[in-house]
Amino acid sequence: MRTIRQLPYEHDELFKDEISRMIPYHRMYGKSYCVPALTVYRDSELAELQAASEAVHRIYRKVQQFIQRYMPDEYLVERLGIHPGLLRAARMTAAPDGITRQDWIVGEAGIKCIENNTDTPTGIPEVAYLEGKLLEALRSEGMSEADMNLHGPSSGMDEAIQSALTELIHFYSRKGLGTKVYFTCYDWHVEDQTNTKYIMRLCEQAGFEVVYAPLEELEIIPNEGLYHQEEQIHILYRLYPLEYLIEDREEDTGLEVGQALMDMVADGKIGLINPPQHIITQSKGFTATVWSLYERNEQTPAFCGFRLFDDRELEVIRTYLLPTYFEPSVFMQNREPYVAKGIWGREGKGTHLIEHPESDERLECVLGVAQNAKADQPDLLHQADAPLTPEQEEAAHIAVYYEGQPKIYQRLWPMQSAEVQTEEGLFHGYVLTGIFVIGGRFAGVLPRIGEKVTGDMAYYCAAAVTNETF
Predict the structure, then answer these.
(1) Mean predicted confidence (pLDDT) in 438-445
(2) Contacts of residue 16, Cβ cutoff 8 Å, sequence gap at least 6
(3) Taking the model in full, what pTM does it have?
(4) d(CA 238, CA 245)
(5) Which of 457, 244, 453 is nearest to 341 (CA)?
């Protein structure tokens, strides 16, 4: 079980004033999201996570470039699930690395990276700001000897973000796009707005001119430009997934504004942060592609003239990644527990654990019969006589959207359990460790404690590191 250091505060004693202004979503969905506690990691664990996350990132980057150069459009569309309208932008020459977050399971069986969030990762203010504030609160209470050994692993995250943004902005500036950056997200979405404005302030502190421009206020003139209040935008940070954006149309005219924007990106008229190439690594089909290339490494010389992975990279993949496929037959034949994930699943949506592969009912779910939408929202889609509330209708559409996606299948890796005291009582859950890799370097740790499938109801429990054994 993971060690949790509970702080001697009630929720409202700690999450108030400056902290509440900086993290206004410390409560979400009618319950606490941030908890007054710390998830404790050993120095040796952090050192391995740092080295492993950077090594895995380099492999992801290498495979991304391999896909861009050698894989046909059909593979990107059919296997990675990338919308055809995103292909030109996805194949652009790779820009410098932006902000990414890997999700890791850290436990007794070893550490494994299970997902890669490279398009619109969030959780940034929690890690870059709140982690330090919680450690300050602990020190102000008079630390025990054990507490004196605790330190935060994410203290350099602000600088890492500034460095990565500076590199990206200069990259776009050399292409004639200037250095002024517009920051956009849905203004009504408190969490997205807070993440966006946090990064915007860091960019401004780094010396760049910045403008907050909510998605609702942007205007696109096809083949001409993207505008905010009649000012043309050349560099855009957007906390809005590309797989959503490409589907956007104007309600009145039917104009495909998402496609128009991505065409301008592909034509070099607009620079995106994160870069559009990140759509390749965001797809969970990318994870299956990495494993497929790993298993076929000796065959790649016949395909492209060289061996894709060297021996050290093969060892990294073998040690830190999990077998992942586009169909579940390997796991079914071996009766081995596995996970089915929607290719664009987010916050655990579209993800199902198959802990007993011999179960026909579970098997039907993962092979594409959308039973789970019905199971999770039992009467939302099929009860004609009961009118739906707007919230129920939205929940039903979301369930169908994620359940209807193509899936990948990954070996199930045991998560480490944890107990944390919350406003709602003692919560018994499992730890998922997010690792921010920014500009290609380790930058911070985002621990969340939730169910076996970590969803948007999980608790943020900040990271702390000790040099003691436990």
Answers:
(1) 97
(2) none
(3) 0.92
(4) 10
(5) 453
Distance CA 173, CA 183 (A): 17
Phi and psi for 233 in degrees, rounded to 5? -100, 130
Q: Are 52 and 317 in contact (CB under 8 A)?
A: no
The three-class DSSP label of residue 20 is: helix
What's the sign of the alpha-carbon dihedral 164, 165, 170, 173? Answer: positive
398: nearest Cα among 328, 463, 327, 344: 344
The burial of 27, by beta-carbon neighbours within 10 Å (0-12 exposed, 13-18 middle, 19 or more buried), is given as middle
Strand partners, 452: none
pLDDT tens digits for range 367-397: 443 344 334 444 444 444 567 776 567 667 7
- Beta-carbon count within 10 A of 163 CB: 17
In total, the chain counts a number of residues equal to: 470
Q: Which tokens is 440 given?
A: 């290609």
Where are the extended beta strands (E) located within 37-109?
Answer: 37-42, 99-107
pLDDT tens digit string along 307-366?
999 999 999 999 999 999 999 999 999 999 999 999 998 888 889 999 988 754 444 454
In contact, 180 and 459? CB cutoff 8 Å? no
Q: What is the CA radius of gyration of the chain?
A: 22
Backbone phi, psi, residue 163, to 5°: -65, -45
Q: Which residues are CB-contacts of 334 (< 8 A; sequence separation ≥ 6)?
A: none
